[in-house]
Amino acid sequence: MTPRTRAVGVEIAGSGSALPEHRLTNAELETMMETSDEWILQRTGIRERRRYDTSKPYPTTELGAEALGRALADAGMRPDELGLIVCATMTADSPTPSVSCRAAATLGCGTIGAMDINAACSGFVFTISIAHELIAGGLYDSVGVIGVDTITRHCDYSTFGRGAAILFGDAGGALVLRRSDDARKGMLAQAMHSDGSGARSLYIPNGLGQIVDAEPDPRMDEKIQMNGKTVFKFAVSKFPEVIEETLDTAGLRAADIDHYVCHQANSRILESARERFGLPESKLRINIDRYGNTVAGSCPLVFDELKREGRIEEGQRVMFIAFGAGLTWGASLWQL
Ligand code: COA
Question: How far apart are CA 215 and CA 228, in angstroms?
């Protein structure tokens, strides 16, 4: 891919996030399965994660709508001024309608277009690149991009499922992307990749037994299956690779980026990237200790934290990076 040039600019006009109230701590997990705070903390850096209220009928939609509502308020826009909603999720409350359709109705966005995209943990990063092009290409003046998942519904909180269950938490985040007269603003480079031959290393089976060749194990139905070591190796190699690819496309060096907004899968994976590129802690935020791996919610959650702390400024360069099931991985580099 070559660096981007465009006639109109695209700005990140606002951000927002939403979290369930319930803090599922490592200590609480100790009461549910054979595990320990020490084991989890040492291997993943996670202390607690949030879990949606299981009595609520549409938790993914609720979190997504709440996050987008906050992003609209941050952008100073009314819901009925938004042009389109695209939502990255792999845990829609039902196969149809989509989270984005319900979120549009909840927020009062009128009859605007709304659709979901599933690229697992890479979903939000892929979706902001796509949404950028819809504005840069002149089709829309503004797009609301949501990244949201209630992945804990697919976690098995018994000792059988502990390998994956301890990692995940629920969250939603959103950005409002808007057309800008400043053509320097917008996406400088992007990368999207997939390798379906790695599907077995991270997947959620259903009763039909897809993916697994063996007779389906009822304990596995609808629960996350993960080969932790294989995924770890994949992430540790692809994560720096996609950063380098995106920097090369933009003709920039690692030091030219102000914030690496990264998918939070494991603090060791993030720390190895910090080391590899010689980044100070301030350029690569790790918040996995408080939220765990929140799938499509993780990147917008990190961005929104930085924004609310006043650390996001006009003129900065921000790279969003993610990897996950599929397997998928990608990056989207922005000039603010
Ligand atoms: N608590 C205590 N022990 C556990 C455990 C838990 N929650 N989960 C697994 N174990 C045990 C295993 O049963 C195994 O025991 P054994 O040696 O007696 O067989 C032992 O701990 C080691 O398990 P293993 O899976 O090899 O651990 P690991 O060192 O690979 O760490 C992960 C596991 C999941 C933390 C690590 O592989 C990882 O982070 N992988 C990447 C996952 C990821 O990023 N996924 C999302 C991508 S978007």
Answer: 22
